[in-house]
């Protein structure tokens, strides 16, 4: 497993942090983002999608109510799926939306609240922990990517 740490002292650092994240993404397609409510998971994933070539017109924010947003990169034409699993109440609901088909598609899958489906996450899922220093509002991404 490889471990990477990316720090953001302020919101102004998010674009650069997203570019650094992209540099380590080639090892996985499924990224499980953990972090407390309000840590900035959606904000970071939105910027990550922007850096991957998704147009601002296409970015819809958090998929809290739709569960999944689908984006297409303007630069690579690749699909990106952004999941917000917070509202899922059971694994059955995840199966109902076809979560395994998304995972098997080979497309980039970015998951918020992955603990809701922890039992069915593929073994090659990269774990991303986003922490906040509440005194300074700095954020740290710790990314663990399976070998």
Feature tags:
7 strands, 147 residues, 29% strand, alpha/beta, Rossmann fold, 7-stranded mixed sheet
Give a verbal description of the structure.
With 147 residues, the chain is α/β, with parallel strands linked by helices. It has one domain (2-145): Rossmann fold (3-Layer(aba) Sandwich), CATH 3.40.50.300. The chain contains four helices and seven strands; from the N terminus they run βαβαββααβββ. The chain has helices spanning 14-24, 41-51, 91-96, 99-104, and strands at residues 2-8, 30-34, 68-72, 79-84, 108-112, 126-132, 139-145. The relative contact order is 0.27. The mean pLDDT is 92.
Short description:
By secondary structure, this protein is α/β, with parallel strands linked by helices.
Overall mean confidence score, pLDDT: 92
Report the helical percentage.
Answer: 10-25%
- What is the CATH level 1 assignment? Alpha Beta
Indicate the structural class: alpha/beta
**Rg over CA atoms:** 14 Å
Tell me the total number of β-strands.
7
CATH superfamily annotation: P-loop containing nucleotide triphosphate hydrolases
- What global shape is seen? globular
| Helical run tally | 4
Order of H and E elements: EHEHEEHHEEE
Strand fraction equals 25-35%
Low-confidence stretches: none
Name the CATH architecture: 3-Layer(aba) Sandwich
Number of domains: 1
Strand order of the largest sheet: 1-7-6-2-5-4-3
């Amino acid at each position: 497993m490889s471990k990477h740490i990316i720090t953001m002292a302020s919101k102004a650092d998010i674009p650069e942090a997203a570019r650094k994240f992209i540099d380590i993404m080639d090892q996985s397609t499924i990224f499980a983002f953990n972090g407390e409510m309000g840590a900035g998971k959606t904000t970071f994933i939105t910027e990550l999608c922007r850096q991957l070539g998704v147009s601002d017109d296409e970015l819809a924010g958090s998929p809290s109510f739709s569960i999944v947003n689908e984006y297409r990169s303007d630069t690579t034409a690749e699909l990106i799926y952004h999941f917000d699993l917070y509202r899922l109440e059971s694994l059955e609901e995840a199966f109902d939306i076809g979560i395994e088909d998304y995972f098997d598609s080979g497309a980039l899958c970015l998951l918020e609240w992955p603990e809701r489906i922890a039992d069915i996450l593929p073994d090659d899922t990269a774990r991303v922990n986003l922490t906040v220093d509440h005194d300074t509002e700095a954020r740290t991404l710790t990314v663990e990517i399976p070998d």
